[in-house]
Amino acid sequence: MDSARLHLQTLAPARRQLRIAIVTETYPPEVNGVAMTTGRIVDGLLQQGHEVQLVRPRQNPEDQPSPAEGFDEMLSIGIPIPKYNHLKMGLPARMALTRAWSVRRPDVIQVVTEGPLGWSAVAVARKLRIPVITEFHTNFHSYTRYYGVGWLKQPLSAWLRRFHNKGDLCLVPTAALRSELQAGGYRHVEVVARGVDTTLFSPARRSAALRERWGALPETLVCAIVSRLAPEKNFELGVRAFEAIRRIRPDARLLLVGDGPARAELQARHPEHVFAGMRSGEDLAAHYASADCFLFPSSTETFGNVITEALASGLPVLAFKHAAAAELLRNGHNGLLVPYADETAFIAAASRFAEEIQQLEAMQQRARESVLHMDWHSIVQRLVNVQEQVIEQHAQRNSGGLALGARAD
User: Fold this and answer.
1) How far is residue 171's CA from residue 108's CA, in Å, rounded to a whole number?
2) How many alpha carbons fall within 13 Å on the CB side of residue 32?
3) CB–CB of 77/91 below 8 Å?
4) Who's near 380: CB < 8 A, 6+ residues apart?
5) pLDDT tens, residue by residue, 275-316
6) Radius of gyration of the chain, Cα coordinates, nearest whole angstrom
7) Whole-angstrom Cα distance, residue 141 to residue 160?
8) Which stretches make up the Glycosyltransferase subfamily 4-like N-terminal domain (predicted)?
9) How far is the C-alpha of 34 from the C-alpha of 14, rounded, in Å?
10) According to CATH, where is 3.40.50.2000 located in the chain?
11) How would DSSP label each residue in 291-360?
12) Strand (E) positions, 25-107?
């Protein structure tokens, strides 16, 4: 047995409590899938006894670090993202990160987002020979066609590939995305799925009073869409699918939960629908549970946290066979699946929610059962296992001194 492996075995008990630096440009209370997922991961790591340093942009002038046992925050300078002024892009922080990680060295650095702050974190990790994991959350290159800059797709794809290939490992939420990225030249890709809080999201939160506010009677079919209201989310397809439902069930209601740059235009064109705005926590959970089915018209997601939240709330989901839907939905069992990007099939399938009432009720019963295994504790433990493997492999490649995991405190 070589000395590096022997040293790692000697250190193995200490690996139960890792020191993890997480670098992200979005974090709660910001409302989006990446922020929510990162917040859950941080909470889970702390609950399992690991130390976490969170590096993120300052969200507002009054924003201050919130230290706690085993947790500290390093706030960087951030600038608003065009069209998403409530979100910040972190500026590069190479000098500050180098100082911080030279004094208090993490066992592993996890970079959540691919912005300037994330790029600088990867560069510092490589310079200090600290293992670094990146995360692929957003198909930015797929968004280009929605914003009139299709010519950017190829250079943006190359930019993302270069960024993620600089890390020891790139994490993705589905096996299908792993295969797609590997085919596109990504070298080291592993799957860690996302979880869902089945205590928060539950059919038990259904509210007759809330439905009454939407103009829905007990027998009214309410179709929900929960998402950021932005062009890449393909809301017009969701509206067209609902129109097919309403031709069969004229009293049906469409509920849209969320906010974003497309809300004003959508609401002006479709004032007949219920625009609930941004919701969170138990209020959001009640909005899910008080609907009857869920429409997911997006074709640009890497996962789609709202799918698991809808299923946990007892809502059958209509979606393209893509991302989380392809792995979690069984057609006719807990939702409806149609071929990827086939909008005609999507609209036709939506009408089944209105026509096949008994099947809809059966799918509602099975929806929640299909995600009960996706608790966050299991997801976080899977992540820790991957982190430990990356630390060990990195140490084997860089045997000696700090690269073996000794800390410079």
Assistant:
1) 14
2) 20
3) yes
4) 40, 41, 44, 45, 47, 48, 195
5) 999 999 999 999 999 999 999 999 877 788 999 999 999 999
6) 22
7) 9
8) 31-199
9) 30
10) 3-195+375-404, 203-369
11) SSEEEE--S-BSS-HHHHHHHHTT--EEEESSHHHHHH--BTTTEEEE-TT-HHHHHHHHHHHHH-HHHH
12) 51-57, 71-76, 78-81, 84-90
Q: Assess if CATH 3.40.50.2000 describes domain 203-369.
A: yes
d(CA 193, CA 374): 9
d(CA 38, CA 32): 10
Q: Are 217 and 251 in contact (CB under 8 A)?
A: yes
Q: Which two tokens stand for residue 191?
A: 């799957």
In contact, 18 and 110? CB cutoff 8 Å: no
Tokens of 192: 């860690």
Orientation of helix 235-248 relative to helix 343-355, angle to 10°: 40
- Output the six-digit token pair for 311: 């299923």
Q: How confident is the model at residue 146 (pLDDT cuts 50, 70, 90)?
A: very low
Entry pTM: 0.82
Residues paired with residue 253 on neighbouring β-strands, in sequence order: 222
Structure tokens at 354: 């209105």
Question: Per residue in 35-74, pLDDT tens?
Answer: 999 999 999 999 999 999 999 999 888 888 888 899 999 9
| Contact status, residue 246 vs residue 278, Cβ threshold 8 Å | no
Written as one string, the DSSP assignment of 102-164 is HHS--SEEEE---SHHHHHHHHHHHHHT--EEEE--B-HHHHGGGTT-GGGHHHHHHHHHHHH
**How many other CB atoms are found less than 10 A from the CB of residue 237?**
19
Token digits of residue 351: 């009408």
3-state helix, strand, coil in the chain (%, to 5): 45, 20, 35
DSSP state string for 385-404: HHHHHHHHHHHHHT-SGGGG
